[in-house]
Amino acid sequence: MHACLQIPEILQVIFANLTEVKNSSSVRPSYTTLYHLALTCRTFREPALDALWAYIQVPEVLITCLPQNVRARPVEWAAGGGVVRSIGRLVAADRATLQKYAFRVRSFTFKEDNAKHHVLHESDALSLFNSGSSPSPFFPLLQELYWYDQRDVLLPCLQRCISTTLIRLVIHLKCWSSEMVDLLAGMGKACPNIKEFRCLEPPASACTMLSDIVPCWGDLEILETGAVNAQALKHLASLKQLRELKMLVPEGYIPEPMSLFSVIFSVDTISMTVPSVQFLLAFLTPLQISAKSVQLRIKKIPNAVDLNHLIPSLAKHFKSHVLESLNVGVVRTEYFFGRAIPELTASTLRSLQAFAGLTNLDLSSMHISITDDEILDLVSAWPQMKYLHLDTNWGRGVHLEVTFLGLVGVLERCPKLRSLGMNLNTTASPSPTLLQYTGIASEQVTDLRVGYAECNDVEAIGDLLAEMCPNLNNIYSPRSENTRWHDQDISTRHLWFEGLQTWKKVEGFIVQRRKEQLTQQWVYTHRF
After folding, report:
1. 210: which residues sit within 8 A by CB, 6+ positions away?
2. Which of 110, 62, 52, 105 shows the shortest CA–CA distance to 87?
3. Contact (Cβ atoms closer than 8 angstroms) between residue 385 and residue 416
4. 140 in helix, strand or coil?
5. Is the dihedral of CA 40, 42, 43, 48 positive or negative?
6. Which partner for 243 in 42, 268, 451, 489 could form a disulfide, CB atoms 3.0-4.6 Å apart?
7. What is the DSSP code (8-state) at residue 298?
8. 345 has which bridge partners?
9. How many helices (H) and strands (E) does the chain have?
10. Residue-by-residue DSSP string for 337-396
């Protein structure tokens, strides 16, 4: 039979395109179209229903397949002004209808209970997922499960969703009960085909359980979990297809000694959030990691000794010829305001030159003390750099030492730069030499972060930056992101806002200058 006559196959392709999600923020389109196609004829009905029910984003969608007399009217929820959907008593025929549609579901999301959204009453959710006499999973062919609800009373619903067909499992809980830990403990064997597992914000009490279930999965490609033990780490290192690893080490976790073994990892991306530098150093001790992207987040402000020990040690644990992106930062919390992070000096940063293939380096939550000559020596090792952020997001204890001359040198040594951040020293206006700028124009640079630099001459600085970076669109200052402006001395608070607005004027000046140049070029082109 000619391919054009294979109607079901053609319809499946069409319906798959109708429901395709282009990006993570998109809403799946054409549900109304699919609904009407399902009502059109028998040929359209099955493929349309399969596509319509493949991705269920909210649990209350399940009741739409029930007869009208079973669906009760929404009931006002006085607690938050939201609406709770309620259903009547389910009989055997209703459960048969549910199963007929549940068989089509491939991805299911149970969102967090929120008074602002339509939600199912707890008793109705339990009634829908009630197994009755059947021990089989509620969704026999489910491949993706996203669970965000925080209520322990609905754990039976989660258990009914567990299936051997699952390949993606995301669990996000803020509070973990012993019942939840016990339930997850069985998922290693209950879901043997998992390729992606994300367990967000697990407590220290759940880490032993996570260490036990991880070795059950031999097809893992993406893992986001709490801290795991040596056995689990060795298993992960043996997985050739593992490409993304994220580990959140919770407060109170006591690691086992790791100096007695050695593990070699090979992943695309690795991310770790740890309580302190000491813990991170101890955890990295037995590891040799080959990764393109590394993100290290530290919760506790490190002292100078630990911080200056951490940065040089990175070259010992991460393959220098593989690493392309490095982000090392301190997690910012209310507790940190008013406390200064120790400075990173050029001598400490010089150890990062071993990573000659870096295209992205972000140290913006650190305090970096570096001069023009030192930064030029540093960046000369990174000709492929595209995103370089050595500016600071912290307002206290910042030393501004890189001048416009240093900025010019960085642009010359890193011709592929797109985004640049440094603590720029603008206390003096650009020199007459720089005002007649004849250096290269970095046309790819669109974003510039200036730290806590002041701007004392909008036009002079604007003209210079426009020559250096003709396509510059955004100039960032941490002043715009600092929510603690009310802590500033009242006598100087107006200076805080004036500094912010001045850099916005520079940004606007550059954009307007570019528009005028484009207009002049257009007039000249069409005149001749």
Report:
1. 184, 199, 202, 225, 226, 227, 228, 232
2. 62
3. yes
4. coil
5. positive
6. 268
7. E
8. 369
9. 18, 20
10. TT-PPPEEEHHHHGGGGG-TT-SEEE-TTSEEE--HHHHHHHHTT-TT-SEEE---S--S
- 495 contacts 445 by C-beta, under 8 angstroms: no
Cα separation of 77 and 88, whole Å? Answer: 18
Chain-wide mean pLDDT for the chain? 82
Percent of the chain's residues with pLDDT above 70: 76
Element (DSSP H or E) covering residue 449: strand 447-449
Which of 292, 246, 297 is closest to 271 using CA atoms?
Answer: 246
The Cα–Cα gap between 220 and 265 comes to 14
Residue 101 is which amino acid?
A: Y
Separation of alpha carbons 488 and 454, rounded Å: 17
One DSSP character per residue, 184-223 reads HHTHHHH-TT-SEEEEES--GGGHHHHHHHGGG-SS-SEE
Report, at the CATH architecture level, how domain 332-528 is classified. Alpha-Beta Horseshoe (3.80)
> Residue 283 above 60 pLDDT?
yes
Query: CA–CA separation, 199 vs 209, rounded Å?
Result: 12
- Whether 278 contacts 299, CB under 8 Å: no
DSSP 8-class letter at 318: B
How is residue 426 written in tokens?
Answer: 């603008």
Distance from C-alpha of 459 to C-alpha of 276, rounded to nearest angstrom = 45
- The model's pLDDT over 122-166, given as tens digits with 9 standing for 90+, comes to 888 888 888 666 678 999 999 999 999 888 889 999 999 999 999
The pTM score is 0.83
Q: Which residues contact 136 (CB under 8 A, 6 or more apart)?
A: none
Token duo for residue 294: 């590394």
Distance CA 24, CA 30 (A): 17
133-137, 227-231, 294-298, range with the lowest pLDDT:
133-137
**Residue 339 in tokens:** 């406390």
What is the tens place of the pLDDT at every residue in 398-452? 666 889 889 999 999 999 999 999 888 887 666 555 666 777 889 999 999 988 8
